[in-house]
Amino acid sequence: MPKVVDKKQMQKHIMSSALNAFLKYGFHKTTMNQIANEANIAKGTLYLYFKSKDVLISDITSLHFERLEKKLIPKEYFQTLEEFLAYIKNALLINKEDSKFIPIFFEAFASQFSSEVFMKVYEDMFEKITSFYKENFEILIENTEIKNTINPSTLSRVLISMIDGIVLHKGFFKINENRYSLMVEDAIDLFTTALRK
């Protein structure tokens, strides 16, 4: 009887193996054969799931964007500043897998940053997150949780830029967990001081 393979699980396994291969050899030097070896599957099996390395990295990036969006946009708005900032703090505490992906993403897509299509997808994701934070700031102002002198639109973009910058630093500079935790604590303290009435 043929072995039943869970297609979604196999795709995840291949994507995770591809990330490991990219870390070992660099994105541009990694071959589909090396990815198949890393995944412990035949090269033909790899091509059944991903037609090329470009398709593979595109799917990895889409998955990364989906996870990032889910992590940064909660299911509902927060009613207190403490709840809001606790959520932001948790969003900043990225796992090793996401941290490892950052340099690979920039290596794989450095040339794509001049592409209007790619940048539109990238910008749309950040606009969606920024829009949620803007609306949540408006609720916090209404609830008298934060100063009413802030500009929710501007501040939401500042916040998402800060989150992006801190996370990028962790990935690019391989900042150790203790130092990174202190950076996150300081960022949350800074926002608490700036926002509190």
SSE blueprint and pairings:
Layout: H1 7-25, H2 32-39, H3 43-49, H4 53-72, H5 81-92, H6 96-109, H7 116-142, H8 152-173, H9 177-195
Question: What this model shows, in words?
Answer:
This protein is mainly α and 197 residues long. It folds into 2 domains: 1-51, Arc Repressor Mutant, subunit A, CATH 1.10.10; 61-195, Tetracycline Repressor, domain 2 (Orthogonal Bundle), CATH 1.10.357. The chain is built from 9 helices and no strands. α5 (81-92) packs antiparallel against α9, α6 (96-109) crosses α8 (152-173) and α7 packs across α8. The radius of gyration is 20 Å and the shape is elongated. The termini are far apart. 22% of the residues are buried. The mean pLDDT is 90.
| Mean residue pLDDT | 90
* CATH class bucket of the largest domain: Mainly Alpha
Q: Please tally the helical runs, counting DSSP H or I stretches of 4 or more residues.
A: 9
The N- to C-terminal Cα distance equals 68 Å
- If you consult CATH, what is the topology of the largest domain? Tetracycline Repressor, domain 2
Largest sheet: none
The number of strands is 0
The appropriate CATH architecture of the largest domain is Orthogonal Bundle
The tally of domains stands at: 2
Globally, the shape reads elongated
- Give the proportion of residues in helices: over 70%
Quick overview of this protein structure:
The protein has 2 domains: 1-51, Homeodomain-like (Arc Repressor Mutant, subunit A, Orthogonal Bundle); 61-195, Orthogonal Bundle (Tetracycline Repressor, domain 2). It has 9 helices and no strands. The protein has helices at residues 7-25, 32-39, 43-49, 53-72, 81-92, 96-109, 116-142, 152-173, 177-195.
